[in-house]
Amino acid sequence: MRKNNIKNKIIKQKDKLFNHFEKYIKLNDELKVALIDKISFVSFKKGEIVHNADKICTKSYFIQTGLFRTYFIKEGKEISEYFPAEGEWSNSPRSFRTRALDIYYIDAIEDTDALCLDVNDLMYLFEHFPEMERYARLSMGTVFGHFMERITSMRFTTAKEKYIHFIETYHDIHHRIPLGMIASYLGITQETLSRIRSER
Q1: Which tens digits make up the pLDDT trace of 153-167?
Q2: Cα atoms found within 13 Å of the Cα of residue 129, Cβ hemisphere only
Q3: Sheet with strand 40-44: strands edge to edge
Q4: Bridge partners of 61?
Q5: Which of 33, 51, 105, 140 is most buried (most C-beta within 10 Å)?
């Protein structure tokens, strides 16, 4: 019964999922059926760990509602790296691709519903539907875009410049991200961030 309920949730979300895929490739009926069969529905509570860096990342999550954070730990401190939200895939990219450990953790900033695709199921889709490789190449631009924005942010010299760039980059969701996580992304203290915000 529970499995049927989960599948029903996936079916209800299928149009949103198909619309996302069709931004990059044309979906035939056979591929649509395969996607529904291979993708599972998952939910995470606010603060829940989605992926632990101690484990190889074998799952990728397409966020339906909610917000994740990708981060690493340096000298005992969490350093936020990027913030995937609705309509984006989230995983530990190098770990997912190479099936090796990497430094990244993922947690849920909000209660989040997502569609989940296991790496083995993704390989099946690649083998049986060549257009899926094109989709993967094109859609990965979102993840790399986050990393490029991260690199760009580090080039700014002042905390204020970094914050302005952050607001521009995450203009749709910055108000949903806790200040402490923003401060760690910018590499400044929360007190400095509060001062910059008050000046604006």
Answers
A1: 777 678 999 999 899
A2: 21
A3: 40-44, 112-118, 59-65, 89-90
A4: 90, 116
A5: 51
8 Å CB contact between 113 and 66: yes
pTM for this prediction: 0.87
CB 196 within 8 A of CB 163: yes
- Distance in angstroms (rounded) separating the CA atoms of residues 173 and 85: 8
The H or E element spanning position 35 is: helix 29-38
Q: What is the pLDDT of residues 38-95, one digit of tens each?
A: 998 899 999 999 999 999 999 999 999 999 999 999 999 999 999 999 988 999 989 9
For every residue of 109-171, DSSP letters joined together read SS-EEEEEEEHHHHHHHHHH-THHHHHHHHHTHHHHHHHHHHHHHHH--SHHHHHHHHHHHTT
Place of tokens 């209660």: 111
- Beta partners for 60? 117
d(CA 192, CA 54): 32
